[in-house]
Amino acid sequence: MVMRMSTLFLRTLREDPVDAEVISHKLLVRAGYVRRAAPGIYSWLPLGYRVLRNVEEIVREEMDAIGAQEVHFPALLPREPYEATNRWEEYGPNLFRLKDRREGDYLLGPTHEEMFTLLVKDLYSSYKDLPLSLYQIQHKYRDEARPRAGILRGREFVMKDSYSFDVDDEAFKRSYDAHREAYIKIFDRLGLDYRIVAAMSGAMGGSASEEFLANATSGEDTYVRSPGGYAANVEAVVTPAPPPVPYDDAPAAHVEDTPDTPTIETLVNHLNEHFPRQDGDWTAADTLKNVLVMLRQPDGTREPLAVGVPGDRDVDEKRLQAQVEPAELEAFTDADFEAFPMLAKGYIGPGVLGEKNASGIRYLVDPRVVEGTRWVTGADQSGKHVLDLVTGRDFTPDGTIEAAEVRAGDPAPDGSGPLELARGLELGHIFQLGRKYSEALGLQVQDESGRLVTPTMGSYGIGVSRAVAAIVENSHDGDGIIWPREVSPADVHVVATGKDETVFTAADELVDEMERSGVSVLYDDRRGVSPGVKFKDSELIGVPTIVVVGRGLADGVVEVKDRRSGERTEVPLANVVAHLRSLLRDS
Amino acid sequence: MVMRMSTLFLRTLREDPVDAEVISHKLLVRAGYVRRAAPGIYSWLPLGYRVLRNVEEIVREEMDAIGAQEVHFPALLPREPYEATNRWEEYGPNLFRLKDRREGDYLLGPTHEEMFTLLVKDLYSSYKDLPLSLYQIQHKYRDEARPRAGILRGREFVMKDSYSFDVDDEAFKRSYDAHREAYIKIFDRLGLDYRIVAAMSGAMGGSASEEFLANATSGEDTYVRSPGGYAANVEAVVTPAPPPVPYDDAPAAHVEDTPDTPTIETLVNHLNEHFPRQDGDWTAADTLKNVLVMLRQPDGTREPLAVGVPGDRDVDEKRLQAQVEPAELEAFTDADFEAFPMLAKGYIGPGVLGEKNASGIRYLVDPRVVEGTRWVTGADQSGKHVLDLVTGRDFTPDGTIEAAEVRAGDPAPDGSGPLELARGLELGHIFQLGRKYSEALGLQVQDESGRLVTPTMGSYGIGVSRAVAAIVENSHDGDGIIWPREVSPADVHVVATGKDETVFTAADELVDEMERSGVSVLYDDRRGVSPGVKFKDSELIGVPTIVVVGRGLADGVVEVKDRRSGERTEVPLANVVAHLRSLLRDS
After folding, report:
1. Can you tell me which family this protein belongs to (chains A, B) (predicted)?
2. CATH of domain B254-400
3. Is the CB of residue A123 less than 8 Å away from at least one CB of chain B?
4. Distance between CA A457 and CA A484 in Å, rounded?
5. What confidence score (pLDDT) does residue B356 get?
C-alpha cells in the first residue's frame, strides 16, 4: 500500500487550532488526522482513519483470542430497555434522546448493557450455553457538558464494549481475568504507558472494577499509587480505619462559648487562645467538620445527607459523588436550612445529627472517626462548640463514608507505603456488573438441576478513538507525533528531496519495491515543495521510520531515520528494503 | 479462523419471524445473522457481522483501486450545513432530528454531501488539488415511514457514500466512469444479478444518474428494459415525441353537449353514441385528460399544476413526483377548486389552462401531445367537451412533462424495441450532482489563471447492509441461503455426525489442518445434536462448501457437498485440504 502525498487528501497546518488545549488535539489536527465537525464531534481524514482502524484491529485480535465473539448493535436504540434499568433517567443530560416520526422515544447508545442482556435472553436458556463473552466495536454517544480535548473526550466516539455472562462468581472471575489479560496485551501493543488501578464502577452499577489509566498530565482522572504497588482511582481509595481509642479517662463532653468561629481556622485560633492544651496546640485535625449536602435521586426526590470529616480535610466531591450514585449531589441551600430549623449553620454537630430522630438527617462519618476518638465540633447553637465529644460514648453516626480528600502521604490501605497522587487518562474499564442487568431484564438460564438462575455479568470497555489520542499524549516530541509501529498509518515515510527528476525516479522505484515486499509507504512525491517543509511534515505526521531519497543518491545511498531517536543511517539503495524488513520484524 | 458451533453465539430458528415479508428477512433471521432491535433497526450477530464486513472489504478494495480515499464522518451532524442546502427541510419526516443539552439542533446523517463539500472547502483551494474522490463506509439514518423487509430497508443502515470533485464536466466524466467501473466490479464480486438503469436523482439534486438494481421480485423499484438493451428506472423513462401532425384540413374546434361525462369512460361512450366516427370508434386515446395537483415547495408555499395526458393513460405519481422535486405532491382539494372558480371540475380543458392569464395555473402536457394532434377534452363548462381541439392551433401548453404511466409495449426511447416492466432492488446509485452543493456551501478553487471556479461534484452510494440482504434475495433455495464465496462467513462448513468420539477426533484434526492452511471454517462440533438437525442448519446457514465427517470415515473418506448444486463428492481424508484449496482458487 502506497499513499502518495501529491494526491493524498491531507493538508498539514503550522498553527494549533484555537480551541485545542491538549497536545494530542493540537497534533492530530495539525498533522491532518482529524478535523472538527461540531463541538466534540470529529471527522477522520485518510491518515487518521487508517490509525483508528489499526487500533480497532489490535483490539479485535485480542478479543477474538480470548474467545469473545464480535457482534454489532445499532447506535439508535429504543427507550424501553433503558427504562427497565432506570438508565433512561439516570444518564440525565449526558444522554442524546430523540423521537421518531411516530413520536416513539429513542436514544443514541452510551453503552449497551441492556441490549446485550436482552439478546442473550433472546437466544440462550441453559447453563450449558455459558460462559459467553460478546463484544462490539461501535460508535457511542454521550452529550458531554464541556466537550473539549479533541477526540480524547468527544460526544461521538468509538468504543469497544464487551459483556460476559456466567453462571456463578467463580466462572465470572475467569471471564474477568481473561479480559484483564487481553487488555494488558492490547495496551502493550498500542505502546501505551499505563497503569491498572482499582476503581469505582460509576453509573453502570456493580462492585469490583479496575481502570486502565494512561499516564498523562492531560488526564482527567486522579489516582494514587504507593511504592509497594498499590494503585487506585481516588474515588476507590479505602481509608484504613485506625483501631478504637480507649476513652475511660476522657472528661465529659462540655459545651463552650466560641463566638464568631464559623470556620475551622477561626475555631482553632479561638481554642488555642481560650482553651490552651498542655500537650501542644489545637489543630484542625482535632475538630470534626460536618458538611451538609442534598442528594437528588433519579426519581427527582431530594434527601439531605450530613458528612463528618476531620477538620483538616476537605470533602472531595468526586469521592462523595461516587459513593452516593446514582443520586446526584446538590448544594444544601438556605431554603434547605429553613426546612431544618434545628441546624445552626456553621455550628452543626452530632448532637442533632447523631440522633436521627432529632433532625431526620442521615449522618455518615469518615472512617477515621472510630470509637473513642475525641472531637471539638459544633454544639448546634450559634457561637458554641462542644469539646471532648467522644465517638461511641456521646454520639453514634449512621455509618461511615469515603468522602474526605485523599492526600499525598496518606498510608496505602494495604500497608504498602505512603500514597502519591498522579494524573491518568482512562483507556479501559473492566468491572463486575453482578446481576443488576440480568435481574432488571429477566435474563435467566436453567442450571444443572433445571432450576432457573440469574447469570452474573461483567462489562468491559475500551475507548478506541480515545486510545488514538492517548497514544499521541504518550508518544510525541516538540516536532510532532511518534507512532508506535503497530498503529502507524504506514510502515515507512519516503521523502524524495530535490528538484532533479532522477531523485523521483529512484524514489518511485524504491517505493514500488517496498510495495511488492508488503511494506506500506507514505510517499512524499510532491514536486515544488522544499526539503525543509517535507522534513517538517514527516516529523509532524510521525511515521516511525523515514527514508530520505536525495543527495546521497549520487553515492548510491539513502538515509534511514528513526523518528523517535533521531538516529540516521546511510543505507545502500539495494539494501533498503531488506533493512526495513528487518526493522519491522524486530519491533 | 475456526468458529465452533458448540460455543458460537448462534441459534437457528425453525419458524419465520412473524413480521417478515421478504425471503432475505426470513432467512437472515432464521439462520441467525441478524436480530431485530426495534422497527427497522437490527443487530448483527457473529455470522452476520462477518458477512457484512466481507462485503465492506470488497467495497473498500474496489474504491481504493480507483484512487478514492477513505475518510469517516460522524453520524451526528450539526444542522447548519443542511440548512444551507435546504435539506434540513426537504428531508421532511425522513430525517432524525434531535437537540443537544444546549438546545443546539442536530441530525443523524442520511447522506453526507454537505460535510464532504465543507471538508474539501476547508482543505483545498486549487485546481491542482483536483480530481479528488473521497468515500466512507458508515452508518446512515432515515426514518422510513414503514420500515419493513428487515435489513433491506432499515432505519439505521450501512452505506458506502463517495463524492467526486472536479474542475469541469470532462474531468467529472472520468470520475463518474471510474465509479461506474468500480461498482460493476463490486456487484460482480458480490455475486449479484443486477442491471444498470438510467435514473432520476431524487432529493440529492443534479441531473445525470444511473442506478444499479438487483433483479428481485421484492424490489421496490420498477424499471423498464428493452430487447435492445435499454434500461431505465420508470421515473427516468423518456417518452419519444412523435413528429408533428399536419392539421391544415382539420375542422374548427367545436364545443358539444356531453352531459354526465365526468370520466373518460363515460365520455368515450357518449362520443360513440352521439358523435359516431367514420373511421372507427372513439377511444380513450382520443381524449386529453387534465389532472390538477398542488405542489408544496420546501418553503411551505403551495402552487397549482395542471398535467395533460392522453386519456388512455393514468398519471404515474412517482414519475410526476420525480419531475417536480424538491416540491411534494398534494391533492387538489375542493377548497382549491373554490379558489379557482374558472375550473369546471370534471370538464377542465386547455381553454382555461392553455392561457396562463385565464387561470394562472401552469399547464404541462405529455410529450405525445405534439403540434397538430387533435383532442376531445373538457370545455371548461360542466357537461360540455370540445372536439377537434388542435394542439398548437387552438391551445399552447406551457411545456411537457414526463408524468404519464409507462406501459409494457411502449417503445424504448432509443428505438431498441418494446419496453418490458421489471422489479428491481436498488443496490447503488451514481449521479452527477453538478454544482448544487459546491455553490450552496461556497466551495471554490483557483483555476490555472487564478480565477475562482466552482468544482462540479458527483455522488455515489452503495447500500452495504442492504447488499447483504440483496445477495440472499438473489441466492437462496427452499432450504436456506447460498452465499457466494467472497462474502460467505466461512470457506467451509465442517459437519461432524454421529455419536462416536473418533468422528470428532478426526474432524478436529481436519479442522486444525484447514486452519493452518488458511481455510476459514464453521465447525459443527455439537455433541448430542442429530445429523438431520446439523444438515438442516448447514443448508440454512449457506456456507458454499459443506464437508461431512461421519460414516465414510471407516473407508477413510469424507463427503464434500456443494451447497448450490447439491453435488456430493467423496474425498479421501488426506486430500481434503488440497481439494478445498483448489475449489477456493477456482471460484
Report:
1. Belongs to the class-II aminoacyl-tRNA synthetase family. ProS type 1 subfamily.
2. 3.90.960.10
3. yes
4. 34
5. 54
The DSSP call for residue B362 is E
CA distance B158 to B468: 10
Beta A420-434 vs A445-446: how paired, if at all? unpaired
Are A9 and B133 within 8 A, CB to CB? no
How far apart are the CA of A25 and the nearest CA of chain B, in angstroms?
17
Contacts of A72 in chain B (CB under 8 A): 43-44, 49, 52
- Is B178 in CB contact (< 8 Å) with chain A? no
d(CA B59, CA B413): 33
Class of domain A18-237+421-473: alpha beta
Residue stretches of chain A with pLDDT short of 70: 200-207, 354-358, 587
Write the DSSP string, A247-290.
Answer: -TTPPPPEEEE-TT--SHHHHHHHHHHHS--TTS---GGGBEEE
- What average pLDDT does the segment B531-546 reach? 98
Chain A residues whose CB is inside 8 A of the B138 CB are none
Chain A: give the shortest CA distance to residue B163, in Å. 13
Structural class in CATH, domain B490-586 = alpha beta
- Sequence ranges of the domains in chain A: 18-237+421-473, 254-400, 490-586
Residue range B15-237+421-473 in CATH 3.30.930.10: yes
Selection from B161, B229, B165, B237 nearest residue B198 by Cα: B237
Which residues, other chains included, contact B274 with Cβ-Cβ below 8 Å and sequence gap of 6+? B256, B258
What are B351-386's pLDDT values in tens digits? 777 555 467 899 999 999 999 999 999 998 889 999
In angstroms, the CA A363 to CA B454 distance is 70
Q: Min CA distance, A162 vs chain B (Å)?
A: 13
pLDDT tops 60 at residue B201: no
CA angle, B12 then B564 then B3, to 5°: 40
For chains A and B, CB pairs below 8 A equal 133
Q: Give the chain A residue whose CA is nearest to the CA of B101.
A: A93
**Model pLDDT, residue B355:** 57
Query: Predicted ipTM?
Result: 0.88
